[in-house]
Amino acid sequence: MFRKKLTFAAIAFCFAFTGIAARAQDAGALLDLLVRKKVISDQEAEEVRAELTKEAASTAAGKWKLSTPINEIELYGDARMRYEYRGGRTASNDLTNPNDWLERHRQRYRLRIGLRGTLADDWFFGIRLETSQSNRSTNVTFGGDSSNGPFSKQDDGINVGQAYLGYKGFPDFTLTAGRMPNPLVTTPLLWDDDINPEGLAQQWKHTFTFNIGGGAAAAPSYSKEGYSKDGKGVVAPPAAEPFKLKLDVFANFAQFVYDDTNPENPIGPTPTNPDHDLFMLAWQVGARLTFPNNVYIQLAPTLYNYSGSGDSFNVPFQGDFTDTNQTGINNLLVFDMPVEIGWKLWELPMRIFGDFAVNFDADDRAARAGHPGSGGQRYAYEAGLGIGQLKAKRDWEIRAWWQHTEQFALDPNLVDSDIFDSRVNMQGVAVKAGYALADAIIFNLTWAYGWRSNGNFGTGGVGDIGINPLDQYQIFQADLNVKF
Amino acid sequence: MKIKYLAVGCALVAATMSSANADRLVIKGSDTLGAKLVPQLAEQFKAQHSGTTFDIAAEGSTTGIAAIIDGTAEIGMSSRRAKTSEVGAAAAKGKHMKPTIVAYDGIAVIVNSANPIKGLTKKQVEQIFTGDVTDWSAVGGSGGKISIYTRNTSSGTYSDFKELAMKKRDYAGGSQKMAGNEQIAAEVGKNPNGVGYVGMAYTKAGGVKVMPIDGVTPSIKTVQGHTYSYWRPTFYYTNGEPSGLAKEFLDFTIGPGGQKIVAQVGFVPIK
């Protein structure tokens, strides 16, 4: 009995001081060893195991029951409080209110909470619940639904932001289906990072490592401190650092269901040109080359195309006046090239990032928008510098970039909703700065100022500032984020 | 006076009922233990304790552990350890799941005696039962679609085998779930492409042969020495320290007389 108590105490002590919940399963190997060494009997081991199981069952972890196929599960999420100013100025030739500012001050919050995990036989899954029904935002505005009385909960809904299932059973491949985190390497120039596309994705990634010279131990050098006659006190100098190159090659393919047609075949005569589901297709190949000392360069050329018509976005994009044909996705064959080059200077991570996109079908898109001959408005690009990182308490980061998007270059339904208000035909500067008040608490400031890129066109897209053209635009955000 | 007689009568009835309950032992749980071993132990025990009756229900280890939690049995037979969730549920009801090892068992992998295969590795066993391989030719056999027979999900052997042999992976989709060891042995004995697992006590069935695993055959020596990979303890679970008839029967089971029967039935004695 004393031996059993001693064993139990010893095992409990080990778990307590290693910070692991005391579970009988964890103690199994140790108990088996003690039995094999004949320190305790099988029966004594079972009694200790039963005690530990009882202890484990009383902990929070022990009460949380997971189904057998789950190998691993992670609860994660974030909450954010935000103050935002957003304003847009009408054009100087506006007939009723020239050079007038439409401004909004908002206090907002968002909550995202998710579970992701791995299942038996190389499957994985993820679900994430989010506030807001918007495709490009998870924010809820305080007092935004006051028509239902103060502090109404009408717009404080919880929505499924992500729900996906995947398979990693083939080496280097990840196959995903559902409403998923964006599987492509992107920037906010093309994609708002709140968008979780729906459909299928196939990802492949392989890492090659090259050793190029170096690595040989240098000849011992005998300093005054290191020398000894018997050689025992000699400390060899460190080996020369081998020059290693790591090359990550990846390919991402996606078939997103952009718009479901309902119905394809209505009652009555079959349509001459029936609508079909609208798919967005993406082909991306890329590479990230990492040199010693955290120097890297990454390229991810991508081609986007659309197939089918759907029934919500099949009106040709026009883009000039408020709420008329701002969302059409006709004539978009977009090549995109996000680039990032990073390095460390005095242990401070730095990076230059950029993105360049061109719509090969801009001539037709411009013509169908009523601007024949304006297909030259086909380019979008951004370039910026980032310094620092936000990984741990007292980390800081600042990013600044220039962004330019022409009227017929991109899908206005996907571009970032903050910079610049979900619009194309805009250009300007943006700055983001962050500081980690604690490992999980990040304070962020964002400011952007933009203006109409080309005065001959509107600023296509639907944003929070309900004027078009958006002749000038400014946004300021102060965020307090809690990550868990 | 009438009230006096009535009181005496009630006391006598109560004493009779109490005596009847004290001589009746309810045991529920594992089919592995309850199909052969425990009934034989009960017969021997009854021969030594006249007037004792047993109520034995062998419907799987899960039912035995649940019976201790619910208080519907004095002894819960189990061929697996109680899960954390079960121990937690017991604690919530003020019960303490106390395990007592009553015998060891080796889970034997059996194939039809006409199968030319001579043995399997642990990896091959995992591949067969998870469905990674579906034809005998993939594991050195002469070909033919593998038919897998397993216990049902309430069986301790079902979960033990998953843990011991399958790295907790799921059974192959087409595997057939059987109610007990005898049914598995019978089906494998009839099917030339069959494979299943049974407790050591059930390996004498006709038409089956036991597969050495990594060259080791389940036996008293290999199980007691824990050198056979798929060995396991089998348990009586009680609510805390047993008392009364339950303690007497438990002591008998792990004593010399009971362990002799353990060996006779085909299990491995604890000493």
Highlighted features:
heterodimer, A: 484 residues, mainly beta, Porin, 2 domains, 18-stranded antiparallel beta sheet, 5 helices, globular, B: 271 residues, alpha/beta, nine-stranded mixed beta sheet, 11 helices, 41% helix
Short description:
By secondary structure, chain A is mainly β. Helix content of chain A is 12%, strand content 42%. In chain B, strand 5 (147-151), helix 7 and strand 6 (176-178) form a beta-alpha-beta unit.
Overall description:
- The complex is a heterodimer of chains A (484) and B (271).
- Chain A has 484 residues and is mostly beta strands.
- Chain A has 2 domains: 2-63, no CATH class; 77-135 and 161-209 and 241-483, Porin (Beta Barrel), CATH 2.40.160.
- Helices cover 12% and strands 42% of the residues of chain A.
- In chain A, α1 (2-18) packs across α3 and α2 (24-36) packs antiparallel against α3.
- The longest helix of chain A has 17 residues, at 2-18.
- Chain A is globular, with a radius of gyration of 29 Å.
- Chain B has 271 residues and is an alpha/beta fold.
- Helix content of chain B is 41%, strand content 21%.
- Chain B is built from 11 helices and 9 strands.
- In chain B, strands 1, 2, 3, 4, 5, 6, 7, 8 and 9 form a 9-stranded mixed sheet that branches.
- In chain B, α3 packs antiparallel against α11, α4 packs parallel to α5 (84-92) and α10 packs across α11.
- The longest helix of chain B is centred in the first third of the chain and has 21 residues, at 2-22.
- Chain B is globular and about 55 Å long.
- The model of chain B is unreliable at 10-21 (pLDDT under 50).
- At the A-B interface, α2 and α3 of A face α5 and β4 of B.
